[in-house]
Design a protein that fits this description.
By secondary structure, the protein is an alpha+beta fold. The protein has one domain: CNF1/YfiH-like putative cysteine hydrolases (4-Layer Sandwich), CATH 3.60.140.10. The protein contains six helices and 15 strands. The strands form three sheets. Strands 1-2-3-15-7-4 form a six-stranded mixed β-sheet, covered by helices on one side. A hairpin with a 2-residue loop joins β12 and β13. α3 packs parallel to α5. It is globular. About 50% of the residues are buried.
Length: about 260
């Protein structure tokens, strides 16, 4: 099953048809924020009005049927830290008030897990057998540290999930078409994955173009995941639909990847 785009009025987001839990990878379209944050900015700390961010979460909550008060956010530092969270971890919409982590897992019904991106790779996980869910922000450092596989193994350890049952979706990020790097990035991928990383690295002159979606998918497969859907969207190519850190030089809002642990 593919990753598809859904629209509701001005709101536009991507979902995986293989994931039964309410979820989405947001675009920048469909919110109330203005200026450089136009319009569905989900980050409080970048200078947007808090009231706009709250309204943007309310819009998404209505679309996905979750209460923003039941959202757990990530204070992302490009780490490989995974947090197991429950309803006691709901701490409001400013993710800088949360403990450091780049991934969340839960089996608490009604909880909405949120990670933020603006070129990095978002990954959502759902086990339809146990009901457990996970959300991961994979920067290139987190990718090389196998944060995707660590999230899967954390779900296995905490909730007894069988990786063969887990559905994974990899959302919009900066594609290989645009992710030009120096040698440190491909060297980190090869150190982590060996020669299996090489098909996902292309050399052009003195630059390297790395396919982070494909490399994260490889880490997921290594962790036992059989069902993986991958968005074809590139945040840099489609900067009118997504915020790209590279395009905006950091003057931007943030997308969200959200998954809700289903009631009952």
């Amino acid at each position: 099953m593919p990753i598809i785009t859904k629209k509701s009025g001005a709101l536009e987001y991507e979902i995986s048809e293989a994931i039964a839990a309410p979820h989405c990878f947001t675009t920048r379209l469909g919110g109330v924020s203005a200026g450089i944050f136009s319009s569905l900015n989900l980050a409080c700390h970048r200078g947007d009005d808090a009231e706009h961010v709250e309204e943007n979460f309310r819009i998404l909550g209505n679309a996905l049927d979750f209460d923003p008060k039941n959202a757990v956010l990530t204070r992302q530092t490009h780490s490989d830290i995974i947090r197991l969270v429950t309803n006691v971890d709901c701490g409001g919409l400013d993710h800088h008030t949360y403990p450091e982590c780049d991934g969340l897992i839960t089996n608490t019904p009604g909880l909405a897990l949120v990670v933020f991106t603006a070129d990095c790779t978002p990954i959502l996980l759902h086990d339809p057998v146990t009901g457990a869910v996970g959300a991961v922000h994979a920067g290139w450092r987190g990718t090389a540290a196998d944060i995707a596989g660590k999230a899967v193994r954390a779900m296995v350890s905490a909730f007894g999930c069988d990786p063969a049952n887990i559905r994974a979706a990899i959302g919009p990020n900066i594609g290989q078409c645009c992710f030009a790097t120096d040698a440190d990035v491909p060297e980190a991928m090869v150190q982590a994955l060996g020669s299996s990383a090489l098909p996902h690295i292309r050399t052009v002159g003195d630059k390297y173009y790395v396919n982070l979606k494909a490399i994260n998918a490889q880490f997921l497969r290594n962790a036992g995941i059989r069902h993986i859907e991958i968005s074809t969207s590139c945040t840099m190519c489609q900067s009118e639909r997504f915020w790209s850190h590279r395009v905006t030089k950091g003057n931007r809002g943030s997308q969200g990847a959200i998954i809700v642990c289903k009631e009952g």
